[in-house]
Amino acid sequence: MITLEVNGKTREVDADPATPLLYVLRDHLQLNGAKFGCGLGQCGACTVMVDGEAILSCVVPISVLQRRRITTLEGLGTLGNPGPVQRAFIEEQAAQCGFCIPGMIMRAQALLEKNPLPSQAEIRQFMSVNLCRCGTHMRVLRAVERAAQAMKAANPARKSTSIGR
Amino acid sequence: MNEHSLSRRDFLARSGALVVSFSLSARFALAQEAAKASALPGNLKGTPMLDSWIRIDANGNITVFTGKVELGQGIKTALIQVAAEELVVEPKRINLVTADTSVTPDEAYTAGSQSMQDSGTAILNAAAQVRGILLGLASQHLGIPAERLTVQNGAVRADDGRTITYGELVTGQALHVSAQPRSPLRDPATRTVMGKSMQRVDIPLKLAGVPIYVQDLRLPGMVHARVARPPSYGARLRTLDTRKVETMPGVLKIVRDGSYIAVIAEREYQAVVAVRALAKSASWDERPVLPAQADIYSYMQRQPAEEEVIFRSQTNPTFGAGTLEATYRRPYQMHAAIGPSCAVGLAGDGIVTVWTHSQGVYPLREAIAEMLRVSREGVRCIHMEGSGCYGHNGADDAAADAALIAVVLPGRPVRVHWMREDEHAWEPYGPAMVSSARGRLDDSGKVADFQYDVWSNTHNMRPAPAGNLVPAWHLQTPFTPSPPKPIPQPAGGGDRNAIPLYKFSNTRVMHHFVPSMPLRVSALRALGAYMNVFSIESFMDELAKAARVDPVEFRLRHLEDARAREAIIMAAERFGWSRFKAQRGRGRGFAFARYKNLAAYTAVACEVEVERETGHVRVVRAVAANDSGEAVNPDGIRNQIEGGIIQSISWTLYEAVTFDNTRITSVDWASYPILRFPNLPDSVEVHVINRSGQPFLGTGEAAQGPTAAALANALADATGVRIRELPFTRNRVKAAIGV
Amino acid sequence: MTATRVILSAFIGLALATTLLAACTTLIALAPIEPPSKSSFDPAIVAKGAQLAAIGNCIDCHTAAGGKPYAGGQPLKTPFGTIYGTNITPDPDTGIGQWSEAAFSRAMREGVDREGRHLYPAFPYDHYTKLTDEDIKGLYAFIMTRDPIRAEMPPNELPFPFNNRSLIGAWKLLFFERGAFRPDPAQSAEWNRGAYLVQSLGHCGACHTPRNALGAEQKRHYLAGGDAQGWHAPALNAASPAPVPWTAAQLYKYLRTGLDDLHAIAAGPMEPVVHNLAAVPEQDVRTIATYLAALMGQPTADRQIKAEDALAHAKREQAAYPLIDRSELQIASGDRAFQNGAAIYAGSCSECHDQGRQASSGAALHLALGTAMTITTSANLIRITLEGIVPPDNNPARWMPGFADALTDEQVKDLVIYIRAYFGREPPWRDVDEELKKARTGRKR
Question: Which of C59, C355, C359 sits opposite B665 (nearest CB)?
Answer without folding.
Answer: C359
